[in-house]
Structure formats: structure tokens, C-alpha cells
Amino acid sequence: MTSSDFASFLEAFLQRAEPLSREVNLAYWTATVSGREADFDKLAELQVRLQKLYSDPKDFERIKTWHLSGSGLPDIDKRQIDILYHASLRNQISPDLNERITKLSTRIENQFNVYRANVNGKALTSNDILTILKESNDSVLRKNVWLSGKKVGNVVHDDLLTLVKLRNEAAEVLGYPNYYSMSLDLNEQNEEEVVGLFDELEKLTREPFAEMKATADERMAERYGIATTEIRPWHYEDPFSQEAPRVFDVDLDRYFKDHNVLDLVTRYFEGIGLEVRDILERSDLYEKRGKDQHAFCTDIDRKGDIRILANIKNDETWTGTMLHELGHAVHDKYIDSDLPYLVRQEAHIFTTEAIAMLFGRLSKDPNWIQEMGGIGDEEKVRISGDLGRNLRHSQLMFARWSQVMMHFERELYTNPEQNLNELWWDLVERFQMITPPEETDRPHWAAKTHIVTVPVYYHNYLLGEVLASQIDHFIRKNVLPPGERSSSFANCVGVGNYLTEKIFAPGAKLRWDEMITSATGEPLTPKYFAEQFVH
């Protein structure tokens, strides 16, 4: 088979796949904004149609042949074949099984969207829960709010466990031991290497995290008027304890409450040469009834229709979230538009997470807060020490939380029949060093929406943090002008130029590992994350 054979096949395939992919993405957008069951049903139908397109056995045999014997083809063709092969392989299951998985997944996602915690007869959004956990010193109220938020796990538990088993069934049909192993392989990741890197990070972060947590626990105990031994998950400000509690003497929200979040982030990205106004104009950014309560960025068509869903408040959390989501957005926007469709996407899901995290960190950076007009020199000096400790604490806490998610999902798909409630709290106690609640025989784990919406994804967040530190190091050493290596990159157009040229524009033309080496001069390594946040 020649390059022209593949070109003819690909052209015919994309004439069907490209518009249908756009329809799926638009339907997902509509459903997550509206929360209507009918919109989720339409989404499921379109997803099934797209999956059927990638599941055609005759097409797959041709793709597989090219994949196994394409040594004479141009590199760009071989890269497209690899991407198409992985996308098609995951769909080589029976249409009935594919449809059951898709429809069950969208049904559970809708249950998450419409669920509202209820405390004392009052319905609470996710933003309401976060506000109470940030502000209240009442341990009883905090516990009730935390438990009520977790009850969505009871709602979705049975369906979610069924979904896990169906995903495993699909993986076994394709020759994999389980869905976890399949997902990593089809995303061009080696399971042993991922687990090995996590093990290395666990050892690096264990002692510094324990020391910092002890200090934080003392301050939290003082705040709530309890002993440190009485601290429970609801005493943290994040429902999953994945973010550091604000125990150092800085109330970051006060620097943002009188600013328009959109103005801050727009000015910042424009200052480094990345235009985002068009993205924000297409986005849906504030709370609505039935709307997804979280945030995400989506590229609708790989032609520039990039949007963000958010529920903005003028506080530090949502400032960081918008910096994060706009990191995804500019990554998508500045991919070379002349690239073929299949490689007109990020090199890997964790490489776009790295960019999002590189920017998301800035809302806790005193240099960035000052440069965006939030504080003067004296105030920056006063808070820099505590903010530095807070950022370090945040990174260590997230690194430990990511261990929980990685190990839990791996165990979940290895043996879904085990006591998952017990497994969850064993992992929380081991990695986050948090004392479980009195009653652990509840599906609190099922309240984490990522297990449904982006399964076997969470490890990519920590890999993203590792790569963000590597990119940060390279920028400070090689891109910023001399004397500005401690800045937040504000108003340095060279940063935007570097990111565009070396990371955004190539898209998926290179494998993720080749792209990282090309962009930073070395393979992915945890040493720069350790330099920033461990030592």
C-alpha cells in the first residue's frame, strides 16, 4: 500500500468523521450548559454514531496493515496512522456494548450535573459548598455540608460500578487485562513507567508533605478549636482535600474580590502575546440552573471554535481556574492550522495539562498579583513568604492526592468486586495522611466525577505538573531576559512566542516524548518539580 492509497482512504474517512466529531462536541457543549436529559440523550446518540464510524472492521484492517507495515511512508503519514489506529482499536467491540457504555456514561454525567447537596432544606451548588468550607468555623455545619456533597456517590454508585465492568469487558475483548491498562497503552503511555514515576514522586514528597501537613494541622486545629487528632476530611477547604487549606496568613480572595477575573486573565495573556478575547466571547462563564458546576475547555472543530465552560466568582480559586482553562485554550488556538486534521491537536492530554498548570499556578504568585495590579511592593514583601509556603503546600498536597486517584483507579479496574469504600479510605490515609470519617462504608469515591467523565486520566494531572516545572525551568533559563528570571512572565512576549513555536504549533506531529525533548532539551523528568516544591 502506498502513501496515495492512505491519502485517498483518509480523505474519504475524514469527510464523514470531521463533521460528526464537530456535532458530538457541540452536543456535549449544549448538554453541559443546559443539564437537560434530552440534550444528554442526543449527545449519547451522536457519540454512538461516531464510535461506529471508528469501529468499521474493514477500515480497521486496512489501518492495522498500514500501522504494522508503514515503514516506507512519510513521517507525517505514519503519525496519522498511529493516531487513527489507536482511536479505531478502542472501538473494535460490538456495537451493542459500545452503545451501552456510552449511554450509561452520559446518564451518570447528567446525574452529576443536576445533583445539588441539601443542608437544612437548602439546595447547595458546588460553589456554595466551597464557600462554606472556606469560611465556616462550625465543625458540625462543615461535616453536614461535606457529607451532603458526597451523597451524589450514593446516587451514581450502582450505575458507575456497572460502567466500570462494561469498560473492562470492552478492554478484554481487545486483548487487554483491564480498562486501565488499555487506556494507558492507547494513549501511548507505558503503565510500568507511569507507576514507576509515581513511586519516585511518592518517595520524594512523603517527608516534606508530612512536615508541612503537621504545621497545617496545628493551624487548622486552632482555627476550629479542636485537637489535631480530631481533624477530619470536612475540616479541609476542598471536598477531596486535593488543595491546600489556607492556613498561612494570607487571604488571597481579598486581592481578587474587587477585580474582574476576565479582565485580569485577558490582560495577562495578551501581555505575553496570546490573544484570548475571541475564546471568551464564545464561552459560557457564569452559573446557571442545571449547568455543569465545574470548568472545562473544549475545541469544537480544530478550526478555531474554542470555548470554556466555567462558573466564575471574583476570587482566587476562579482566577486560577480561568488561567488554567485559558492555558488549554491557547494551546488549542495556536496549533498550526495547516497541519492535517488528525495531528491538529495536542501532543498528549498531559502536555496540554502542563500548559494549563503552568498558568494556573500564577494566581498564588505574589509577582503575578502585583504585576496585574493587585498589591504594592510592601504588601508583596509581606505576603511572599506565606504565599511561597502556600504554593509549595498546594503542590505537595496535589501530588499526594493524585497518588490516591491513580492507585484507586488502577485497583478499581483490576478488581471492581473488592471493597472499594475501604480501599478509598485506605489510600486517603496512606497518601494524604488524613484520618477517615467514622463511617467509611459509603461510596465517597463515587462522588469524584472524573471517574465517569475522564476515566484513567488523573495521573496526567500530576505528569502535567511535572512537565509544567520542566517548562518553567527552561523559560526562566533560556527565554526570559537576564534579571527577570523570578518574574511571572507578565508582558514578556517571548514566552508566548516560545510556547507557540515549540509546544503549541507542532500539535501531535511529534509523539509527546519527542516533543518534550525538542522543547526543553531533555526527556520528561521530575527533578525540576522537586527543585521547585520538594527541596
Description:
This protein is mainly alpha-helical and 535 residues long. The strands form two sheets. A two-stranded antiparallel sheet has the order 1-2. Strands 3-4 form a two-stranded antiparallel sheet. The protein is globular, with a radius of gyration of 23 Å. The relative contact order is 0.11. 63% of the residues lie in helices and 3% in strands. The chain folds into two domains: 1-92; 191-533, Neurolysin, domain 3 (Orthogonal Bundle). β1 and β2 form a beta hairpin. α16 (377-414) packs antiparallel against α17 (420-432). The longest helix is centred in the C-terminal third of the chain and has 38 residues, at 377-414. The model has no long low-confidence stretch (mean pLDDT 93). It has helices spanning 3-34, 37-55, 57-68, 75-89, 95-114, 126-135, 139-150, 152-173, 179-186, 191-224, 261-271, 277-281, 316-333, 349-360, 366-371, 377-414, 420-432, 450-453, 459-478, 493-504, 512-520, 527-533; strands spanning 117-119, 122-124, 296-299, 306-309.
Secondary-structure blueprint of this entry?
Layout: H1 3-34, H2 37-55, H3 57-68, H4 75-89, H5 95-114, E1 117-119, E2 122-124, H6 126-135, H7 139-150, H8 152-173, H9 179-186, H10 191-224, H11 261-271, H12 277-281, E3 296-299, E4 306-309, H13 316-333, H14 349-360, H15 366-371, H16 377-414, H17 420-432, H18 450-453, H19 459-478, H20 493-504, H21 512-520, H22 527-533
Antiparallel strand pairs: 1-2, 3-4
Helix pairs in contact: 1-2, 2-5, 3-4, 5-8, 6-7, 8-9, 10-16, 11-13, 13-14, 13-20, 14-19, 16-17, 16-19, 19-22
